[in-house]
Amino acid sequence: MEKAKVQTGIEQFFKKRVEKDAKIQNAYLRVHSEKHGIDFQMATGKEAIHSEQPFYIASISKLFTSVLFGQLVEQGYCSYEDKISKYLDAEILTNLHIYKEKDYSNEIKIRHLLNNTSGLNDFVEDKPVKGKSMPDLLVDEPNRIWTPLEVINWAKENMKNHFPPGRGFHYSDTGYHLLGFIIENISGLPFHEVLRKNIFEPLEMKHSHFSRTEPIEKSPYEVAKFYIRQTDMTNSESLGILYAGGGIVSTTGDLLTFMKALVNGKMLKKETIEKMKNDCGKFFLGIDYGYGLMNIKTIPLLMPAKYNSWGNAGSTGSFMFYHPATDAYIIGTLNQFGYGQKGIRLMLQLADKLLKATKKVEVLL
C-alpha cells in the first residue's frame, strides 16, 4: 500500500508540473528502484500517446558516445590522451581551433572533447559572430540536409572558440561531433552502426535507434513530437545536425536498461566508469561534467549529499540519472528545446520526493 502511495504521489507531482507549463506538449517519466520495489512509467501532456513512446533523448546521447570510447580504450584501440589529429583528416582540422590568432587544433586530446575542456565553440547554443543561430536555422530551413562535416565547417565560419585546450570548461556539441568522426575512423563503420552493434543489440534496446535509421524492432507508437519554440521539428530534415552529441531516439524503458547496465558494470570496467566520472570540468555549481556525463556532487549548505547522482541531461529537458541514496533510476523528458536546466531541476525534485517517500516507508517497516 505504501509503495502505491509513493508512486501515486510522484505521478501526481510530475503531472502537475507538466500541466502548469503550456509549452510542454508531451512528457515521459520512468522511476525504478529495486531496493524499494518501485517501478513505474507514465506519459502526460496533450500529445502524449503512451509511456513507452520513443523520443529524442538529446544530449543524453553524449553518454552513449562516451561509453563507445570507454570500450575502445579498454580494447586498446585508442587512449584518452591521444591527440585528435591522430584520427581526423586535414580537412576537418584546418582552422578548427583558432583562438586569439593562434591555432590549437593539433593540441586537442580525446579527453578534452569528452569533458568539454577543449575550448571549442558550441554550434548549438553559442551566439554566432554573424547570421542566424543554429536553432533559428533549423526552424527556418526545416528541409535543409546537414552532413556532420557541413556542421563543423559552419561552426568554423560562424563561431568563436573560448580558450586553449585544457584551460577551462565550455560545453561543446562541436566537440562531440568530432568524437563521432573519430569513432567512425577507428571502427571503419558509420556512427549509427557502431551504436547498434556495441550498445543497442547487446543490451536488446529494441526501440532505440539513431536519427533517420531504423530500430531493431519498430515501436507500435510514433516518435513523440519534439519542439523548438513551439515549432514541431520531429520529422524535419534539418535535425540531421544531431550527430554523436544528440541524435539518439529511445524510450524510458530502453534508457533504464542502458543505465542499469552501466551502473552494474555490464558495459565498462569499474575503473573506466570512475575515470569518466572524475576527470571532469565544472558545468554548474554542484554539477561536474566528466566523459559524457553529469556528476551531481555535494556542496555544503547548497547541495546535500543525499542528492548525489550521475547520468546526463539534454536541452529538451531530457534526463537520465542514477540516484544511489535510493538506488533509483530517474529517467524522462519534457521534449521542449531550451528546457535543459528545467529538466535537471525536475529530476532533483523527483529525487527529493523519492527520498522523503522511501524514508516514510522504511520507518513504517
TrEMBL record:
Annotated signal sequence range:
none
SUPFAM superfamilies per the UniProt record, alphabetical: beta-lactamase/transpeptidase-like
By its UniProt entry, which InterPro entries does this protein fall under?
A: AmpC-like, Beta-lactam-related, Beta-lactam/transpept-like
Please provide an example of a Pfam family that matches this protein in its UniProt record: Beta-lactamase
| Ranges for domain Beta-lactamase-related | 37-341
**Organism domain of life:** Bacteria
User: Which protein are we looking at?
Assistant: Beta-lactamase
